[in-house]
Amino acid sequence: DTGVSQDPRHKITKRGQNVTFRCDPISEHNRLYWYRQTLGQGPEFLTYFQNEAQLEKSRLLSDRFSAERPKGSFSTLEIQRTEQGDSAMYLCASSSGGGRAGNQPQHFGDGTRLSIL
Amino acid sequence: AQTVTQSQPEMSVQEAETVTLSCTYDTSESDYYLFWYKQPPSRQMILVIRQEAYKQQNATENRFSVNFQKAAKSFSLKISDSQLGDAAMYFCASPVYNQGGKLIFGQGTELSVKP
Q1: Smallest CA–CA separation between B36 and chain A, in Å?
Q2: Burial, B28: exposed, middle or buried (Cβ in 10 Å; 0-12, 13-18, 19+)?
Q3: pLDDT per residue over B59-101, tens digit each?
Q4: CA angle in degrees (0–180, nearest 5) for A64-A72-A101
Q5: Which of A85, A112, B50, B51 is the most exposed place for a label (fewest CB within 10 A)?
Q6: Rounded to whole angstroms, how far apart are CA atoms B35 and B66?
């Protein structure tokens, strides 16, 4: 169990640029979640994959955000035309597929901290 | 909408003492899990403890235990023999079962431990 891995750890970019983050879940986990966390707040759900299928997406997520999980392994989160308000920590989590979704604990990565200049 | 509320933004405890962090939640589910997560400064969020709602017995993990009161929808975390390494943000979380088990988090409680 090597844990959830996220890359990069930090990303600084200018407003209007596109950014892409990668998440490698724990290898046997088929459930993958993306969250966004701003300073001093709890994480906020963005989207959920079961294997390669994106099954849930937050209504708060603008169409500038897109996520993929090809072949049900790693996942990418892309933000197009970044805005100041996108500055946050982006967290990836994975959980095993046993039983009802939500019963298994989610294991989090270190996150990618995005700063928009 | 499902909610999780942590009413204590900050708590402080003396090393070796006991502290209790509060959490209330609202869910329409009859059987569910609840979780406490710890997030040290600039570090990874890790699971502290989880409780299954239909179990009468409160969960315990070493120095961490919960006081789960289902009728009151209360899920507090007790840390015994507090250590300096316990200093962190603590989040209470509840899954939304009809939305893939996504977690709804409380606002967090920042715990400081005084030597």
Answers
A1: 10
A2: exposed
A3: 999 999 999 999 999 999 999 999 999 999 999 999 999 999 9
A4: 90
A5: A85
A6: 10
